[in-house]
Write a structure and sequence with these properties.
globular; 13 strands; Rossmann fold; 11-stranded mixed β-sheet
Length: 243
């Protein structure tokens, strides 16, 4: 079963035919919001708004462990994460979609693993390729079918947030090889791997990262770009789910 994790801008998905809603209590606490079980192209999917109902949870306070555990608990096998990101690479500007293939993690203080206070074996996951190659190829095919501008790979630099980055920090990320900057890819992707869930991300670039375009960032412009891309995000998801 497919789960869709909605990021900034995708807090609701009214186009889905809702079948049920489940509030899941996990060993790690409650997830961001009740899980919406819905029908999409004659199959069941699960929708979870990462930032909670009303977009109230900042990136560093999201209970990523509870979110991924709850999805696994209801039978999810594949997770499609939607992320709003800033563009660092010159070909990844506002309005473009990216299907990232790698992550560099700059976060701190987040619960990164299910390996703690346990008598079972330590799960040293292979995280060489953090995203599911199979799902990435499906996303690429979906974006092609939707005739949308996109890049089929990119390195996602995950920062702590909730503040946006300084221009010097973006220079550092660029030097490290990051093409995009966001705040929610980690530990979400790693937790999915620990639970043996196939995981991939659909990123919409909503702004140039700090200092890249030589202008101060405008939240109004970011929100406008995000709102303008929502229909294209949903179009891509519908195509993806129908493959």
């Amino acid at each position: 079963m497919l789960a869709i994790i909605g990021g900034s801008g995708l807090n609701q998905f009214p186009e889905l035919e809702i079948v049920d809603e489940k509030k899941i209590h996990t060993p790690y606490g409650d997830c961001s919001a009740p899980l919406t079980i819905a029908r999409l192209h004659d199959q069941h999917v699960v929708f979870l708004p990462r930032h909670g109902q009303g977009h109230k949870l900042p990136p560093h306070q999201i209970n990523y462990r509870a979110n991924m555990w709850a999805l696994k608990d209801v039978g999810v096998t594949h997770v499609l994460a939607v992320n709003a990101v800033g563009g660092i690479h010159p070909e990844m500007g506002p309005g473009k979609f990216v299907v990232p293939h790698q992550i560099i993690d700059y976060t701190y203080g987040r619960e990164q693993s299910y390996n703690f206070l346990t008598d079972s074996y330590i799960n040293h996951i292979d995280f060489t390729h953090p995203y599911s190659q199979f799902m990435r190829q499906q996303l690429i095919a979906s974006l092609l079918a939707a005739n949308l501008p996109f890049r089929e790979q990119g390195v996602y630099g995950c920062t702590q947030g909730p503040r946006l980055e300084t221009a010097a920090e973006i220079v550092r990320l660029q030097r490290d090889g990051c093409d995009l900057v966001g705040m929610t890819a980690m530990p979400e992707a790693a937790l999915a791997r620990e639970l043996a869930l196939e995981y991939a991300a659909l990123c919409l670039v909503v702004n140039w990262a700090a200092g890249v375009a030589g202008e101060d960032l405008s939240m109004d412009e970011i929100l406008k770009t995000l709102a303008a891309g929502m229909d294209d995000i949903k179009k891509t998801i519908f195509i993806f789910a129908n493959q």
